[in-house]
């Protein structure tokens, strides 16, 4: 439920000055101070918000606060700028009324902050969405850009706006922002070239130098050091709490968001850099022959760099600083500039350049933020304009600013009165005339077209002849002398003719907010705002597109001899437009007050505040507001607030609220002339009455509070008691249940115990009985068993006895029978039975022997020697014979498995055995070696191809042998071939046939009995071969060779068998001689080789070592 509150709740002092009682300047200040000390910086005068600058951040701008003030009535909560913003926004959205928010106050009073707060509040409460948020962001981000270029540190404010700003925010019918338009007023451009002590130039210069990257600075031909630039004041270049570098980044970012292109930003920075460069150009006099001084540029480096930056031809600009062309009708006159004129021209160019850049920025921002749709829209204008300024030394700028404030005051009065009157009419209350000071007369003094101060200034500026500030002041003195609000030494009006506070070159105007003394010096110049045409033409010639755009009047094609409008008339015109604009809108006022001059928190300088209260006309404001009725409130909230003061309206009034309020007022009683009843509101004439109501309400609330407390306490105690009672029942129920449960458990467990004892006892009894029965059964069984046992054993004994007796009877009977039979048959047995028994026994033995032999047959291998042992000696002969038969049989079996080849081999071996067995010691070692025949593989080996072709028959044996030389008895290796018909000896290496002996010519072969391979081939005497003599050879395969030789003889039919002589001494026919070969057995000596020695011509000794 929404809680209805009122501004009047928890009020410190009074939240609305209209309710101040008594109303005086002291009480007014006292109230402000009281509230300020309690952090209440906002106070109302009706719907006007007074804002005191706290100079510190207060926690009253949080999103929670925004929510708190959102959609609440103005007087519902304590005064706040959000309440005003909310009222304005809702009135715009719901009642379709264009709004303007006018923020005034002197420099540093918090106007700009206030305008930002209003904008941020509206941004927070209005619609949301991507497009809307973008618009909001652009509107909000236009602030940092404008502040960087238009704000500066002054003695009063570290971030003082040096231009007036009016921003129209446009909304659609739903209250969503569409865009905006910004207007700027009178930038304080003199600051570009000169700043008062303790102040700075515009922020952007410092931000650029501290925040830009080295690269950017290099491109702009700038140096980071502030001291290098004449236009930058150095004593306060660094401001506490201001981070220029960070601000620079913020500004660039803001420019991007607002929609500046990268090259546009670059151009802007180039112009800023150009201004700094311009300030560094210095001049020196150069004497001319006609005794005048002409200015020349001292150091052209800065000029050169600036021209490069802006794309201006250096000579053109240089000339523009030395000459001035005056065009009059058709004439063109060129005059030289002296040094001071050159400086004037330089500064004028810098000021113009900067202020035009600023205006361009505003236009550019407007282009970005303007509403995209043409649809009708509602507007909320926010005016943040410089406040009334009263300095020690006031010049043209202050005059203009104060004129603007004068106009604003006028519109304020007009609109406030109009609003008041409209409300009275709307509510049907009689309008009584209100006395107030109307400042229209002052406005007239300044802006009157015939004899207003601005008109006269323009007249002076346009007048031919010498025009100075003095001539202007003279003119003022003559024309305005009569005016009530004008004072000067010469005016008749002045009462201070001898007062030195009014010097000669000054005039004073009594503004609505106080008297201000203006020094006339500089008025004419500043109003003229002259920039030599040569300079603007030089600028127009630049290749830099932005610079060209800023100086359109420099276009020679559009030479305009007419003077441009003066600064004063321009301002007057723009103020006029502004005023007309504001008049169409519903005004909302924020009046800012600066509590002290030190920018310090918690300090309230009364004199300073008093001064502001006066010139802002706040007392006037209260009076106007109170002229009719001090307080008004719609009937519903009024009745809601005070209904407890009357029994008839408390607690509920059933009927129209207005009647309820009337009843209430009559009942209280309130004098009838103190209140008026409008259509929807009650009007209370005097604050006293309201406070009376409030006081009564407070008392009544206390009583009501007591009543509520009483009822509440009673209710609370009763509910507490009922709760306790209810709890007690629950607790006791639970407890009883618990106790019964326990008791039951106990009984249950005892029953179980008793039961178990009884059951145990019964069971034991039963067990005993059963055990007894079992034992009885066992005893019976045992007794029966023993009894049966005894009986059985007795029976067994009896049977055994019986059997023994039977057996004994049988034995005795047998013996007796045997005896009888033997006695009877003895004589027959001796004749036949002995032989039969013997035969049978022999038969049995033989049978056993043969069966045993059959089961123990030895293996079938013919070389196996095993044979079972003989069992009986008498079988000795049979046993041996059987062994022999078995051996023969298995040999036969073995032989029957032979192939033809194998058979031949064995026949050969058999032959060898016949020849050498037991005759030659070499024989046993040859038995196990098979006869291979062709050891050299004559037919296959390609080495013996030649030999092969020489021998055509089948080769029976081929081997290498040693032929013993008869001369030295040494051996020569020869190939030995045996064929069917021949023995061939051939050279081992060449294979050439050395000798071929037909077997027919062979008489015999001689070998020794020893273990050697010597053999002699003896030839038949008289045969063809015998001419060469016998051969003495030695071979490793002697046995084989001789056997094969012998066999070849046996198989051939045409010749007889070759003789084999085995003896240790034989003769060999060597050609002519017969030599005896003698074999001698010797002990082995250096190896086992057989050696041959020739003893003499007739004897050859062969030494054969004994084999181990
Ligand atoms: N509501 C506020 N809360 C906190 N500080 C404020 C407030 N209003 C103003 N200030 C302080 O005062 C300074 C000057 O305010 P500013 O709005 O720039 O003054 P003006 O625009 O009137 O010259 C600000 O920089 C800020 O420090
Ligand atoms: Mg400001």
State mean pLDDT (0 to 100 scale): 87
In whole angstroms, how far apart are the ends?
A: 140 Å
* Strand order in space, largest sheet: 23-22-21-20-26-25-24-27
DSSP summary, beta strand count: 31
The level of helicity is 40-55%
Structural class: alpha+beta
Low-confidence segments: none
Q: Give the cofactors and ligands.
A: adenosine-5'-diphosphate, magnesium ion
Largest sheet: 8 strands, mixed
Strand content: 15-25%
C-alpha geometry: elongated
Radius of gyration based on Cα positions? 77 Å
Quickly count the helices. Answer: 31
Structure description:
The radius of gyration is 77 Å and the shape is elongated. It has 31 helices and 31 strands. It is of the alpha+beta class. Helix content is 49%, strand content 16%. The site of magnesium ion (MG) has 5 residues, from helix 4 and strand 5. Adenosine-5'-diphosphate binds next to helix 4 and strand 5.
Secondary structure elements and their pairing?
Elements: H1 25-37, E1 42-45, E2 48-52, H2 63-69, H3 81-95, E3 99-104, H4 111-125, H5 130-150, E4 151-152, E5 160-161, E6 164-171, E7 177-185, H6 190-193, H7 203-211, H8 214-219, H9 244-258, H10 262-280, E8 283-287, E9 293-297, H11 300-310, H12 314-320, E10 323-328, E11 331-336, H13 339-369, E12 378-384, H14 396-427, H15 440-447, H16 453-462, H17 469-479, E13 486-488, E14 506-511, E15 514-519, H18 523-528, H19 533-540, H20 545-550, H21 567-583, E16 586-593, H22 606-615, H23 618-626, E17 631-634, H24 635-642, H25 657-667, E18 675-677, E19 681-684, H26 687-855, H27 876-896, H28 900-916, H29 923-927, H30 945-950, E20 955-964, E21 971-979, E22 982-987, E23 993-998, E24 1002-1007, E25 1014-1019, E26 1031-1034, H31 1038-1051, E27 1059-1062, E28 1065-1070, E29 1073-1082, E30 1091-1096, E31 1099-1105
Helix pairs in contact: 3-4, 4-5, 5-7, 5-9, 5-13, 7-9, 10-11, 10-13, 12-19, 14-15, 14-21, 16-17, 24-25, 28-31
Adenosine-5'-diphosphate binds near residues 58, 109, 113, 159 and 592.
């Amino acid at each position: 439920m929404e809680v209805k509150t009122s501004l009047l709740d928890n009020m410190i002092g009074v939240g609305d000055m209209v309710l101040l009682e008594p109303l005086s300047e002291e009480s007014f200040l006292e109230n402000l101070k009281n509230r300020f000390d309690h952090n209440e910086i906002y106070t109302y005068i009706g719907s006007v918000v007074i804002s005191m600058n706290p100079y510190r951040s207060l926690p009253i701008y949080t999103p929670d606060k925004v929510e708190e003030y959102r959609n609440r009535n103005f007087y519902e909560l304590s005064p706040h700028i959000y309440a005003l913003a909310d009222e304005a926004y809702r009135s715009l959205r719901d009642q379709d009324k264009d709004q303007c928010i006018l923020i005034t106050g002197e420099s540093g009073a918090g106007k700009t902050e206030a305008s930002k707060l209003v904008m941020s509040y509206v941004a927070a409460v209005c619609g949301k969405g991507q497009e809307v948020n973008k618009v909001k962001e652009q509107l909000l981000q236009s602030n940092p850009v404008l502040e960087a270029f238009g704000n500066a540190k002054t003695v009063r404010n570290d971030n003082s706006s040096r231009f007036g700003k009016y921003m129209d925010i446009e909304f659609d019918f739903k209250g969503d922002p569409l865009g905006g338009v910004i207007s700027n007023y009178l930038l304080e451009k003199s600051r570009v070239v000169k700043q008062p002590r303790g102040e700075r130039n515009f922020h952007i210069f410092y931000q650029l130098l501290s925040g830009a990257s080295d690269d950017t600075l290099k491109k702009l031909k700038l140096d980071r050091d502030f001291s290098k630039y004449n236009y930058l004041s150095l004593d306060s270049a660094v401001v506490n709490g201001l981070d220029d570098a960070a601000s620079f980044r913020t500004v660039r970012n803001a420019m991007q968001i607002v929609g500046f292109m990268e090259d546009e930003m670059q151009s802007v920075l180039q112009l800023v850099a150009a201004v700094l460069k311009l300030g560094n150009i210095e001049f020196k006099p150069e004497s001319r022959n006609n005794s005048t001084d002409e200015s020349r540029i001292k150091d052209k480096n800065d000029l050169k760099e600036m021209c490069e930056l802006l794309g201006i031809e250096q000579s053109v600009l240089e000339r523009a600083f030395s000459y001035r062309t005056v065009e009059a009708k058709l004439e063109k006159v060129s005059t030289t500039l002296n040094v001071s004129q050159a400086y004037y021209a330089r500064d004028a160019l810098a000021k113009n350049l900067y202020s035009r850049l600023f205006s361009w920025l505003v236009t550019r921002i407007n282009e970005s933020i303007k509403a995209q749709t043409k649809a009708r829209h509602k507007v909320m204008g926010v005016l943040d304009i410089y406040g009334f300024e009263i300095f020690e030394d006031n010049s043209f700028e202050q005059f203009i600013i104060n004129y603007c404030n004068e106009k604003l005051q006028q519109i304020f009065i007009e609109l406030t009165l109009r609003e008041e009157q409209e409300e009275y009419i709307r509510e049907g209350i009689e309008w009584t005339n209100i006395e107030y000071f109307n400042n229209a007369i002052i406005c007239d003094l300044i802006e009157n077209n015939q004899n207003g101060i601005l008109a006269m200034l323009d007249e002076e500026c346009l007048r031919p002849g010498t025009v100075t500030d003095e001539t202007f002041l003279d003119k003022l003195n003559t024309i305005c002398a009569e005016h009530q609000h004008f004072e000067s030494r010469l005016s008749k009006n002045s009462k201070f003719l001898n007062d030195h506070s009014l010097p000669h070159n000054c005039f004073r105007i009594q503004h609505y907010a106080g008297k201000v003394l203006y020094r006339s010096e500089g008025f004419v110049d500043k109003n003229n705002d002259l920039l030599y045409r040569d300079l603007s033409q030089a600028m127009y010639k630049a290749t830099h597109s932005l610079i060209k755009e800023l100086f359109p009047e420099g276009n020679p094609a559009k030479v305009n001899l007419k003077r441009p409008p003066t600064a004063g008339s321009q301002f007057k015109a723009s103020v006029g437009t502004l005023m007309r604009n504001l008049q169409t809108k519903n005004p909302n006022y924020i009046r800012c007050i600066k509590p002290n001059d030190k920018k310090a928190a918690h300090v309230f300088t009364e004199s300073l505040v008093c001064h502001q209260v006066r010139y802002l006309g706040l007392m006037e404001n209260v009076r106007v507001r109170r002229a009719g009725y001090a307080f008004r409130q719609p009937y519903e909230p009024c009745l809601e607030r005070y209904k407890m003061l009357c029994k008839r309206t408390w607690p509920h009034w059933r009927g129209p609220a207005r009647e309820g309020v009337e009843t209430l007022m009559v009942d209280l009683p309130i004098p009838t002339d103190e209140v008026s009843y409008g259509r929807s509101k009650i009007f209370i004439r005097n604050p006293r009455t309201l406070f009376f109501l409030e006081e009564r309400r407070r008392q009544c609330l206390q009583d009501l509070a007591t009543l509520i407390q009483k009822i509440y306490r009673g209710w609370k105690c009763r509910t507490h008691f009922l709760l306790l009672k209810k709890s007690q029942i629950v607790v006791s129920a639970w407890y009883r249940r618990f106790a019964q449960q326990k008791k039951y458990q106990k009984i249950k467990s005892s029953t179980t115990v008793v039961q178990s004892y009884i059951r145990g006892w019964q069971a034991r009894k039963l067990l005993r009985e059963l055990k007894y029965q079992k034992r009885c059964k066992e005893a019976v069984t045992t007794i029966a068993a023993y009894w049966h046992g005894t009986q059985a054993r007795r029976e067994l004994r009896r049977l055994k006895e019986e059997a023994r007796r039977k057996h004994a009877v049988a034995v005795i009977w047998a013996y007796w029978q045997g005896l009888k039979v033997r006695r009877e048959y003895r004589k027959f047995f001796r004749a036949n039975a002995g032989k039969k028994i013997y035969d049978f026994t022999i038969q049995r033995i033989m049978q056993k022997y043969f069966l045993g032999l059959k089961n123990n047959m030895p293996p079938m291998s013919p070389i196996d020697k095993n044979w079972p042992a003989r069992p009986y000696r008498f079988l000795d002969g049979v046993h041996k014979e059987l062994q022999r038969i078995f051996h023969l049989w298995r040999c036969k079996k073995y032989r029957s498995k032979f192939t033809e080849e194998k058979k031949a081999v064995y026949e050969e071996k058999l032959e060898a055995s016949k020849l050498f067995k037991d005759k030659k010691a070499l024989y046993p070692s040859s038995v196990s070696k098979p006869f291979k025949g062709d050891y050299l593989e004559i037919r296959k080996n390609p080495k013996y191809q030649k030999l092969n072709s020489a021998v055509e028959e089948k080769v029976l044996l081929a081997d290498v042998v040693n032929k013993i030389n008869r001369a030295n008895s040494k051996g020569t290796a020869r190939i030995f071939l045996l064929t069917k018909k021949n023995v061939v000896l051939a050279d081992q290496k060449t294979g050439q046939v050395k000798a071929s002996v037909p077997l027919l010519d062979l008489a015999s072969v001689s070998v020794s009995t020893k273990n050697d391979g010597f053999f002699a081939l003896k030839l038949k005497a008289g045969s063809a071969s015998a001419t060469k003599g016998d051969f003495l050879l030695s071979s490793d395969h002697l046995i084989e060779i001789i056997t094969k030789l012998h066999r070849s003889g046996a198989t051939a039919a045409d010749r007889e068998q070759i003789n084999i002589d085995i003896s240790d001494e034989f003769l060999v026919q060597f050609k002519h001689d017969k030599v005896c070969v003698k074999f001698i057995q010797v002990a082995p000596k250096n190896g086992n080789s057989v050696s041959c020695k020739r003893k003499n011509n007739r004897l050859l000794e062969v030494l054969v070592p004994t084999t181990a």
